[in-house]
Amino acid sequence: MTLILPENYDPVLDIRHTQEAIKYIRDTFQREFGNELHLSRVSAPLFVTKSSGLNDNLNGVESPVHFDMKAIPHEDIEVVHSLAKWKRFALKKYGFQMHTGLYTNMNAIRKDEDLDNLHSAYVDQWDWEKIITKEERNEETLRQVVRHIFKVIKHMEHEVWYKYPEAVNHLPDDIHFITTQELLDLYPNLDARQRENAIAKKYGCVFIMKIGDKLSNGEKHDGRAPDYDDWQLNGDIMFWFEPLQCALEISSMGIRVDENSLVEQLKKENCTERMELPYHQAILNRELPYTIGGGIGQSRLCMLLLKKAHIGEVQASIWPDDMIQACKEHHIQIL
């Protein structure tokens, strides 16, 4: 995706009112989201030790920002990409009970990100995780939780409409479910991103399931680290976003690996050496709870609800000078 500059773009809200709306959306959503899924807010780290194996490897090619610490010599410290693994440890450490969980404000730096309307080097999301039983590790559980999340997002449309009726984006009334293989079968002549755009435009909001494994064409729909999501029980929530004429991913989530799917997926990715790391050992030894979890983009949600054309309108990050100038010329107000 390259920079998209919508014609005759009108941000509607000025910067000051946009800042007020951002705070309102974030405060309101996290409260309602926590209540809906029975989650408690906790504090979370900005960085972890490399040796812990807790950092999210994303697609396996992105390198984390890292540094050393005077107080901990001979240890490489990494700024988190996400808290996908840390949360599962935290649920056990903090004594959470069955069908309860946590959420946290996750801030990350992804220095290898290709910057455009939707992607920033600064990542801000609500990371969340909830304990389930082993028997609940199934598609029915996944769909049920997705519908809970969609319900809260849809309710936020009404909340924002009440305060900012001139700016709110009107969302679809339901979410459609489809697997990556079904999507490929439906649009065999399109690439993965084009398939996402086509299905999101058709239904308004979709949950695209089973991401990470190879499809019938020998390719992956998208990359997923092999050691947190179960590739058969995960997916992305995407909305059709009219200002940019593309699918807008709001959440990546899934039921987490158990002792069997972890080994299977590590073998497929040729990284079985990770099984010696503390996090992976804890899963193999069944010391951690079975969970479902994910991340919900805070700035992405603000973009969606306020119809903003660039993520830089709802978060403060760093952008190339030519991008800032191009946005300015098209009335896109970069913070």
UniProtKB/TrEMBL annotation:
GO molecular function, a single term: catalytic activity, acting on a protein
Residues that span the membrane, as ranges: none
Pathway participation: Amino-acid biosynthesis; L-asparagine biosynthesis; L-asparagine from L-aspartate (ammonia route): step 1/1
Major enzyme class: ligase
Aminoacyl-transfer RNA synthetases class-II family profile domain mapped to chain residues: 23-320
Localization terms from the record: Cytoplasm
Domain of life: Bacteria
Gene3D superfamilies: Bira Bifunctional Protein, Domain 2
Annotated keywords: Amino-acid biosynthesis, Asparagine biosynthesis, ATP-binding, Cytoplasm, Ligase, Nucleotide-binding
Keyword Nucleotide-binding: yes
SUPFAM superfamilies from the UniProt entry: Class II aaRS and biotin synthetases (SSF55681)
Chief location bin: cytoplasm
UniProt EC number: 6.3.1.1
ATP-binding is among the record's keywords: yes
Coiled coil: none
GO biological process, one term: L-asparagine biosynthetic process
Xref: InterPro entries: aa-tRNA-synth_II (IPR006195), aa-tRNA-synth_II/BPL/LPL (IPR045864), AsnA (IPR004618)
Any matching Pfam family: AsnA
Family stated for the protein in its record: Belongs to the class-II aminoacyl-tRNA synthetase family. AsnA subfamily.
HAMAP family: AsnA
Protein name: Aspartate--ammonia ligase
